[in-house]
Each structure stands twice: as structure tokens, then as C-alpha cells.
Amino acid sequence: MSFVIPAPDQASLPVAGSADRFPVRRIYCIGRNYADHAREMGGSPDREPPFFFCKPADAAFAVTGEAPVDWPYPTITTDLHHEIELVAAIGRGGRDIDVADALDHVWGYGVGLDMTRRDLQGQMKAQGRSWEIGKAFDHAAPISALRPVSDTGHPAAGEIWLDVNGVRRQTGDLSDMIWSVAEAVAGLSRYFELKPGDLLMTGTPAGVGAVVRGDVLSGGVAGVATLAVKIV
What we know:
It contains 6 helices and 18 strands. It is globular, with a radius of gyration of 17 Å. It has 232 residues and is α+β, with helices and mostly antiparallel strands. The protein has a single domain (12-231), classed as Fumarylacetoacetase-like, C-terminal domain (Fumarylacetoacetate hydrolase, domain 2, Alpha-Beta Complex), CATH 3.90.850.10. Residues 27-231 form the Fumarylacetoacetase-like C-terminal domain. This is Fumarylacetoacetate hydrolase family protein. Keywords: Hydrolase, Metal-binding. It comes from Denitromonas halophila.
């Protein structure tokens, strides 16, 4: 097969301890999946049906090593926010997946940042428009190297945190999720046929806030991964 223009590179993320990489097909995100974050964003902490939004595959920005990785401040915003999240990597696809079977579709886990142009997101909300311009910009998903389930198991509890310039901003526990990873994967598969290479960012605890150029963000999920970026 030949293409009329050069084909884009395959988006991918590193696999911890390996030269192999995980190909990224789509990046799905679940909104307001921790009760305290739902409250701080003006939403309900109840178990309402989960809602999802997307980032493009090439928004995945690999973050490896212990030293902070330079990450570019996005355009057209003066109110950039951080959201630390557990990331589930799908290794086996499916549609209408049962909750009891959902974790069998997860290849592994990492930790990521759902970076958000909050001012643009707010403008879109006020106008009843899509959040995409606030969520789906270039490099909008810094993500650690992924680790297979054989290394991490399926984490259902454990600390999730984010520090900005050494000061704790976000802290919570995976057990605080309104919808577990299994429930989120199953719910997502009702809307989309999941395929190998899909990522699911599983929501963020309370404490989201603004960051600026020069800030260093470091965070992680216990037993899974850590990451650190410097905004430049």
C-alpha cells in the first residue's frame, strides 16, 4: 500500500524495563470519577452514569526517568490545570464487556496527567459546546512508562498524589473512585468497541489547580509508577 502523503508516526508509550513499546490507538478519559473532585467542580458525587471524553492518540507524551522531563506550556490559555490519574492500557478489545470480565481486557497500567486548559473548557461549558478544545491539545496527556499487569496486578487501592514544586496539591486513594477500573472499562465498552492500544485515564482526586511555566509537577500511584515534568 502507498499513501498520497507521508503516513503519520504511530503514537506509542514505553514499557517499563523493556525496549518494547505500547502502541496508542485512542485515549479515553472518564470525568469526575472521585467524589471530592466532582464536588470541587460543582458536580454530584453520586454514582450517576459515567461520562467519557477523548484526547487524540498523539497527545500521549512519554515521561520516563526520575529527572523532570520538559513539557511545553500549551497555546491560547492563561489557566492551565493539572489532574493526576491512573491510566489503564487495553490489551484485548471488546464491546459490551461484562464488569466481571473487564479486567481481563487490561494489559497494564501507568500514571498520567490530564492537562486541561481550564479557561477554554469553562468557555465551552458555558456555551454548551464540546470540551475538546480544553482537553485535547498537543501533548495534553503526559504519561509514564507502562507496566504490565504481571508486574502491578490490578490496583484497586493505594495512594494517588501530585506535588507542585514540592508542595502536595492532590492526594487520594484509588479506592475512592466512584467507578472502579472494571466498571469504567465495561461502561466505556457500551459506547465504543474497545481495541488493543486504547488507553483509559480513570479520573482524578480533588485538588486540581493552576500551574505556570517553570513549575515542576511530580506524582504517582502507589505500586504502579511515578512521573515528573517541568513546564517550559
